[in-house]
Amino acid sequence: MSEIKTQPTDADVPAFLEAATPARRREDGLALAELFHEVTGAEPVLWGPSMVGYGSYRYVSPSDPKRQGDWPKTGFSPRKAQLSLYGLKDLPDGAALLPQLGAYTEGAGCVYVKKLDDIDLDVLRRLIAIAWARGDDPVP
Length: 140
Fold this sequence. Notes:
The chain is an alpha+beta fold. The chain has one domain (2-60, 67-132). The protein is built from four helices and nine strands. The relative contact order is 0.19.
């Protein structure tokens, strides 16, 4: 069985967010940490070197069922070019609500946002809540 490479770490999430560059990304990252904590009530965990995750569930890759592991229910990464938001479109209710978010683009497993000012934070809260309510059953 092939495990997912991105794993939870013991790294200091506030220190990671304070070190984000440029300054705009640091500010948005800190604001996202507050918002995700507000919605989930969970403490953040740094997954791999750059993903701030909340909660976890058992993931099974749709393309390779032998590839599985734990994955955050939801989270984000304050990358230099844009913010990456995870778990928001994985479930049908999230995918249906996503068009109301504002200005974003999509990757295979995430949503990209240039800055928080471009999106509706109330819609983001609802998307996080949907992702957070995910069960712990494997998702094929």
